């Protein structure tokens, strides 16, 4: 497999509109709201009087659409937008979505959030039969399956294709006659439907984006559902009945915006509950609770409430995205970290601090943060993580690619405590996380995917199974702690 | 007076380094930290082996210094940087600082934060004598006065010039042999000195920038002081003894970073105290306290603590700077406001909310915020402002230029309450503000300038006096309420 | 057929290198030399240690490769470059070549100069079978045919594919193991092989590009030939024996650089002979001969030599590419024409001028030029065109797309003379053109394609036949004059 | 003197309009036509309803004014434009003209082509009195002199100032009420007046720019004249009577466009006569005459005519400005030269070539050209230079700054012949040049400045005299040959 076809794991945001005369502008606003889901690149396809037109590029939404003309040229009654996460490899323009397929008889745009576990084997099979791919991402597989389907209508072709791809996905497709949206059978990736005052529809990754464009929430797209929106209205049908709810728990933990709701659960409230549960599970005697802005502030608030220890603003996050280019010296490199997060000395000095973070991935940032607190005069630092230790990669769309890079897969909690140099370190339990979200009483793991913590994946890993097996065999996983 | 010479009031940030081999890089980091003090443009002058070199431009620091080469070309042992606030007029490259004066015998860089009350009359007098100005800002006057001085040394020339300019200023000048820094006789504008581990010195607007570059705080530059830093070390001398402390209270209220300390007072702590005092002065029966991120979060925390009403995250501020270009429809324009601030519905719905904001200028944002809260289902909204009503313009460097634009100068509190559509509206008292900061027991107004609230300016307004007099005569000021 | 799939006719330049450590840099130089063959966009694929990498974009070579890094990142031992002509439609990034196909097992780059007469029908057939195209240009068809071939080796698959596409083409393909180059069975489009001092090979559109990189001319690629260059050296084989030389005569007339040689004929010398023949066929009594710079200077020199009338520099062409954006008034629009060409008044005033141009397409430029000469005081203007009247479109790769736009297809020579307002107007005869080039004594039309003048196309027009038939039926072609 | 104040010698183009509603657009077109006079930067000041507005930047006119908005924002009834030559030092934005001086009571724009011999001493004197300069160019001195003048009107102030600056200059100044233009007492630098069909006036560097905007030639500005154009029409007055015609001969030799006329002499025709005279003075037995495009084509045509040796197109100049960035190897660097000029092998091979170039400065290009001819198979190369050897610097505005860099100041003709490797080398005589131009029978040197060839400067060199004296003392000038 050539070097270009890697980095298959990505997190993204999608935003589609049908039936509003400001479709492209609304999509532009929507992508701004979903910017946290992907900063590598962005694109919009608009259904204009001259057909589907695309503008896309590498960079933030504000960079790609710097020229107002770039949006107005896409003006029409429907649009589809996408933001893409930055992964190490695969940072090429061809991978920026929506993909736009120009056939001699029609054009189709495709946007995808998620990751397919059988993309590579499907692609190999398709290529062997003569198919040519334009991107290195796995999203394109769906279009080839559609085109090869012998079903009589596009809708049936799409359904046939959706039943062939496995893994986590929220797909949106835009044609000249309809907007299609579908979620995988486990609901790994979120997708919601909203209604505009114009009567048009929005289908996008998070409810926060519905709010941003003034759309009223209609419903979540359920696992295994296909939504079809055209000029006659909205239809929802199941493309499969083999479904099992397993929403990505990391959406609740750190990925989604706090002002979003996923399957009816407020992300902010869920995080507050995680913080409260964490305080009960892992109490500590301290003076103040400080959260790492911005994603851990909700959990810190919860910890403070449950423990009675005062909530404080001990860290300031810069409001400006500093393009930190490579610094000439190590000292300058470390200083540039402080551009993003800086401690409030008057708050921290002489205090015993509970520092709440949402998760530990590589551990780099946590290590630097702890040092900042010590330099600012903290008496004690107690690190509390509002999720269980991340030990296993995700294959459904979150960019946690390899066990090797995960700190908790390579170190015990005691080791990590020493590496961080904190007075104590503790994590939320998996059951605590499940209870805090409170999504389902009946589904396994409360309707969440918690494979990153437990290694128990809700679906077969297919193309990824051999590599994972090999990785795990090389690691000394602290399995006893996992179950604790 | 031609149209170009307007917008004399501006807020800015300055950052100077002497005696460190990474002077330009440190200044670059420092300007990122001071970015909140000015987003119109930025510049750095570096003392390179080939003399003083400048790079500058319109835009954010990250835009002006997008190319790493733009910083490295300024490499040397000293540097001076500046960020400039965006005002309506005067947005021309010539006004971006540091100004660099190239004489046949030497070169001098000048950076200025503040506003001079006699700049226009000085400029007219200088022009009548043949002087030519390259910018339309008032900062350049100082250099002309220096050059016309008959004093034998640059230091004495500078002192003579500093005694001729009036108003609010923090000046920094860089020559090939020294870095000079001076603060006006009232200390309107802040300036602090720090020491680097290399032995070099930093002089900049806020202590947060010292922290960002790892410099140790040495001292605040006191009113009427001139600091001279050269290879033999640092000297501080008084250029005048007619001083009277009157620090700009708006620095504490909203302008400075919460992680900065001004004259020994933590900005964050001062804001917490403002919120606590506000809770005592203006209590209300409610369910949650929500602050407007990010500048009002400290005050909201204080209000919560003093009142016992739970602190909540009811508003989310986007982490991405959205370039919001002109939207085609009014509806889209209003939606684009939500890109910056969005309510957390699950938090707000059905709640009686105390919404804490740091100040009311035009009132536009507050009006939109209140609407967002109502749309999100708030039962009641009680707006609490952690500073007194802004009724008078600032002539010392804060961009509050005209009484006409100030909502509180044109409306009573009751009128404003109705305009906002809130259940109640209340402001912190001036004495409450003074006590909360707690800067000085002896100086008038506790060592603060509170002219924006009281109309009592600590110095003669000179060039601005006639225009202000005329403005005030046209307004019906609610003076009775001011004293309340 | 959607609007995007149009503008299939394009002229381009290709440049491939195998076996030189500066492959990407050489290709960059080569593309500069071929810039006249296409200004819409440019791209280079380099065979780097990490596999095939591409940099491409819309604009001139100097714009696309403004950043030196854009070339150095492609460093390796082989490279393939392309410049693309600007046509009205189809100006999208996806059409910029070389196309880069990333398969799971390998990657292949493709560059094409020419136009296929059966591209659309092939594409429709392929799409019906499930194929997905990434561009709207016809070049991509070849890759799909290759991938669908059942032949055992890539070389044989390529040969099978080459035998399925019809029309004019010079294809180059780069894989990790070899560089392939092929010319259509009629040799419509030129392609030459050169040898570098390093031992490496260059295959490109014109010999001028060989000179630019210091490569020694080896041979022209002959009609129906496939060239394979890999680390074991160069092989040339015929992929078909059904060949018939019909080199595009417009390459000699105006398209190729004067310092190039096509099939051994110097372009400059051929043009000088066209001018001489024109002087014999269409003599006139005049004072000076002026050519339209730069493409008609050779013919003007020839006309001067044969007629004895002094050659003069009566027109100056600007050396700067003026981006002429839309001018607010008609007067300004006409003035902006003079930015490109301006008359030398002292040369023209009071003179009887023979103005030599290489061809008349729409006639717009000629009309404006004649007016410039009259304004500059020319006594008489005799327009002499060094090629026959263009009356029929080209379907083999020159951007003469529709008979409707061709002035000579809609007007008699006498009518054109009156429209131009010249004292006389005359064209070179088709036989004169054939004799002037002097390519072949045996092949029909001397081995040239002269279909634009005669309407007799050397191959079936296939997909284009119906549209051409309809167009011609709507025009009153002055066929009698054509044969004159 | 600090490093920044160098590179005082520059060549430039100026273009002013008064009294036309498309003033800014016309100036934009005019600057395109004058682009050859300066490629470092460009700027336009427009007299808009809101006063004088400026747009300027580093780069070509097409780059600086890439955005149409950049011109339309300057819309009004008058404008002043400038293009600036690229010199090694001083490439800073502050030096890009027109300079725009914003006073509290008015604004004035200034554009300058030329060089002042007493700029430095004037500047030092002015700075000692307190003046501050914004640029490092010498043009700004004039404005300071104007502002210090005690004369009652601007016109008289300007006249006083013009009498204080020495050297070569064509100044244009734009105020809200008039356009001023003045030429130095020797007429070193050209300036012409044209009339638009709208009744407005144009004053610019060359008649070619008049043609480009459709303006009718009115008259040359004579040495010592000041032109004032306002809404009441045009006035011409002498600001001094101490005049002596000494037009820069290099304007005729290579600098001006061939389609311009300077003091009534066609530049193209003058160059043809130089070539003819050169053929008479320095005949040679050869097969073809080839000129170096584009500036030497006129002289080559003259040489051909006078000698009877056929004129040939042996060199092709690329029509595309290749941004040639630093090439990794010496071989690639030399190849990149061929991007600009490439030989026509079929023309050159086996021929004895007379290669005509307009001048020899450093000799680098000539050396490379000769090598190209040899590689292309030339039997003999005879280099003929259509001007005398350049041995002395220019201090009046042409960028020939130092004798050290001038090949002919350091080598005899015989030495140069050997260095070039040509069969013969010969220059036009100074008298031949004077006769060829044919400007004046009465003025010394026929009204030309020929100091670059003879070292006899028409005016005192003032600030430059000491440096020149020292330079010359270090060189072994071949004075005997100079007089030959």
Structural descriptors:
homotetramer; 484 residues; alpha+beta; Glutamine Phosphoribosylpyrophosphate, subunit 1, domain 1; Rossmann fold; 2 domains; seven-stranded antiparallel beta sheet; six-stranded antiparallel beta sheet; 19 helices; 24 strands; 31% helix; globular; disordered C terminus; glutamine amidotransferase (chains A, B, C, D); glycosyltransferase (chains A, B, C, D); GATase_2_dom (chains A, B, C, D); Ntn_hydrolases_N (chains A, B, C, D); Amidophosphoribosyltransferase (chains A, B, C, D)
What does the model show?
The structure is a homotetramer of 484-residue chains. Chain A is an alpha+beta fold and 484 residues long. The first copy, chain A, has 2 domains: 12-243, Glutamine Phosphoribosylpyrophosphate, subunit 1, domain 1; 266-443, Rossmann fold (3-Layer(aba) Sandwich), CATH 3.40.50. In chain A, 31% of the residues lie in helices and 24% in strands. Chain A has 19 helices and 24 strands. A 7-stranded antiparallel sheet of chain A has the order 3-2-4-1-10-9-11. A 6-stranded antiparallel sheet of chain A has the order 5-6-7-8-12-13, with helices on one face. In chain A, α9 packs across α10 (297-307). The longest helix of chain A has 15 residues, at 267-281. Chain A is globular and about 70 Å long. Chains in contact: A-B, A-C, B-D, C-D. At the A-B interface, α1, α7, α10, β18 and α11 of A face α1, α7, α10, β18 and α11 of B. Chains A, B, C, D: One of its GO terms (molecular function) is amidophosphoribosyltransferase activity. Chains A, B, C, D: InterPro entries: GATase_2_dom (IPR017932), Ntn_hydrolases_N (IPR029055), PRTase-like (IPR029057), PRTase_dom (IPR000836), PurF (IPR005854), PurF_N (IPR035584).
């Amino acid at each position: 497999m050539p070097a270009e076809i890697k980095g298959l794991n990505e997190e993204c945001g999608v935003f589609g509109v049908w039936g509003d005369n400001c479709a492209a502008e609304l999509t532009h606003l929507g992508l701004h709201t979903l910017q946290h889901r992907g900063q590598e690149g962005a694109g919009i396809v608009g259904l204009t009087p001259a057909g589907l037109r695309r503008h896309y590029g590498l960079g933030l939404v504000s960079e790609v659409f710097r020229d107002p003309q770039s949006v107005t040229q896409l003006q029409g009654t429907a649009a589809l937008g996408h933001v893409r996460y930055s992964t190490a490899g695969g940072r090429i323009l061809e991978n920026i979505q929506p993909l736009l397929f120009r056939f001699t008889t029609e054009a189709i745009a495709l946007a995808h959030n998620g990751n397919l576990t059988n993309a590579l084997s499907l692609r190999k099979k398709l290529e062997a039969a003569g198919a040519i791919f334009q991107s290195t991402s796995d999203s394109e597989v769906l279009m080839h399956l559609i085109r090869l389907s012998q079903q009589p209508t596009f809708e049936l072709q799409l359904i046939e294709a959706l039943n062939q791809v496995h893994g986590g996905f929220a797909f949106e497709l835009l044609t000249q006659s309809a907007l299609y949206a579908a979620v995988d059978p486990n609901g790994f990736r979120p997708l919601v439907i909203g209604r505009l005052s114009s009567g048009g529809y929005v289908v996008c990754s998070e409810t926060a984006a519905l709010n941003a464009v003034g759309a009223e929430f209609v419903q979540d797209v359920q696992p295994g559902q296909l939504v079809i929106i055209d000029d006659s209205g909205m239809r929802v049908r199941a493309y499969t009945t083999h479904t099992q709810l397993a929403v990505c728990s990391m959406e609740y933990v750190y990925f989604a915006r706090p002002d979003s709701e996923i399957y009816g659960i407020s992300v902010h409230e869920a995080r507050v509950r995680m913080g409260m549960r964490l305080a009960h599970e892992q109490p500590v005697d301290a003076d103040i609770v400080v959260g790492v802005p911005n994603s851990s502030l909700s959990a810190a608030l919860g910890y403070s409430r449950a423990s009675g220890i005062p909530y404080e603003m001990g860290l300031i996050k810069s409001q400006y995205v500093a393009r930190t280019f490579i610094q000439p010296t190590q000292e300058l490199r470390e200083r540039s970290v402080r551009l993003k997060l800086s401690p409030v000395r008057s708050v921290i000095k002489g205090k015993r601090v509970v520092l709440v973070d949402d998760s530990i991935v590589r551990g780099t940032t946590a290590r630097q943060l702890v040092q900042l607190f010590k330099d600012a005069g903290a008496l004690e630092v107690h690190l509390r993580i509002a999720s269980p230790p991340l030990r296993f990669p995700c294959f459904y769309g979150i960019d946690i690619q390899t066990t090797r890079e995960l700190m908790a897969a390579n170190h015990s909690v005691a080791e990590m405590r020493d590496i961080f140099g904190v007075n104590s370190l503790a994590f939320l339990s998996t059951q605590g996380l499940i209870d805090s979200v409170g999504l389902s009483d009946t589904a396994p793991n409360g309707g969440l995917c918690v494979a990153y913590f437990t290694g128990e994946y809700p679906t077969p890993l297919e193309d990824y199974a051999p590599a994972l097996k090999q990785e795990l065999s090389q690691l000394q996983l602290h399995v006893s702690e996992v179950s604790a």
